[in-house]
Amino acid sequence: MSANKLRKLEGSVSSNSSASTASKTHNTFYAEPCFKLVGVSVLSPSENVGSITLSSILSSGDLEEMVQINYMVDIEYLINQLPQSKRHSLRTTIVHGLRDESAKNIRTVALLYRNIKVVPVSMPITYGTHHTKAMLLFFTDGTMRVVIHTANIIEREWCNKSQGVYMTPILPRKRNDSSSCEFETDLINYFKSYSNNTMREYGERLKNYDFSSVKAVLIASVPGYHTKDSLLKWGHMRLRTVLGNRVTIPSSCQNDSTVICQFSSIGSLGTKESWLKDEFFYSLSCSKNEKQSRDPDLKLIFPTVENVRDSLEGWSAGESLPFTHANYTKQKNYMIKYLCKWKAFDNGRERAMPHIKTYTRLRANSPSELSHESNAEVAWFLLTSSNLSKAAWGSLQKKGIQLMIRNYELGVLFYPELFQMDESIPVHLLNATLKNLKPSLPSFIVSESSTNSSKKRKRIDEESCQIVPIRIPYDLPLTLYDSKKDDCWTWDIPRKEIDWLGRSYLS
């Protein structure tokens, strides 16, 4: 395939379907994955390069209608992020998971706006949460866009936290002969899983749009007791199925790789690691070429007490990092060996506490003398609303024939095969940083024609390849907890120490 044709095809992967984002450097082509970090308000422009804000998302086209699907929504903050001309006229539907007094408050505020409709979500299983974070943006020219992200619609989560956003390309209306694609079908099925008519009606509307340009796979959770045909549709069993049937672990990762789970909350996982290791990690270890690959290592990233104290928000950042001291005490004996602290200098997010949730399998590179080399090749990468909990991912019951999920969750999975345009041109997902937004292949990556020896090689410039840069939010290599001085953050015990803002913490 010619470079011009590949460049043209890659244009469909960009966040603007009419413009090509692929470029060529020494036979290397770059494609846009449509995943961005959210800008941090106190950082300099140089530290927010390539990031996005809520106002820029809502100004990406001439909006005709907006649907916000979330857990928490501050209506006044949301309206203030819209262009001035749209604030009191844009048809807006808010689907939320608030309860009790918070639900009453959002209804009261909505009465002040004739253009806003508020729809609460009823949860069929106790202790469940409507945790999905997504938007449907309909434009006046008849197109639309789907946004899947990690932030509640409240000010503090779009200002000083580490967050992530995935935006589909602009989606045109279907032509009469257009067929459906998997992303469309999965998204519609997710909308139809709700009991309220509003979500079901929007699910029907999605059938009118062409999703063929989307280069991602939907990974969703829906509350219920899932058996038979639905057992593999949701939660970690859905991820297990996709990884096992479609994802080939690249040669560089087959002998040495790590599954990294990064999240902002930890649930009750039990006193033994049977769910974490034998069920959840097993799902994340699956691949098409599992027999040719060594088992990956497991690492968990969650902030330490020191991370929270020294963060941009000080102790108050810990209010968005729910993990009870009781659960940590029960789980510490097996979790501690996997725990890594939050370090994010490479993308300027060291002091911006994570509300983003990412799960990935990769091989980290040793520091290279060549600054343009990526420090990791990524086998797959998942951006999601799901934290590390059984409620979010599901727990197998009845000897593995039933999956019980409590929450609504939504995420998108990326892997190299999704971006493949030509079988003769290999695709690599590589970690990108502020200083290296267009990384080149790490030295450890072997040629496609080589054996799985993990031997180092020099960069072969004459080999054509396509690179998809992924802004992994944390630093690589990871930094394990220091057992002598690092304490895992738990949010329900007081902290007498003073943070940099001069405050102590009352749980």
From TrEMBL:
Keywords: DNA damage, DNA repair, Exonuclease, Hydrolase, Nuclease, Nucleus. Residues 12-22 have a biased composition (Low complexity). GO terms for cellular component: nucleus. SUPFAM superfamilies: Phospholipase D/nuclease. One of its GO terms (biological process) is DNA repair. Substrate binds at K133, K357. The record marks S389 as: Interaction with DNA. It is found in: Nucleus. The active site is at H131 (nucleophile), H355 (proton donor/acceptor). It comes from the Eukaryota. Residues 1-22 are annotated as: Disordered. InterPro entries: Tdp1. One of its GO terms (molecular function) is 3'-tyrosyl-DNA phosphodiesterase activity. Belongs to the tyrosyl-DNA phosphodiesterase family. This is 18929_t:CDS:1. It comes from Acaulospora morrowiae.
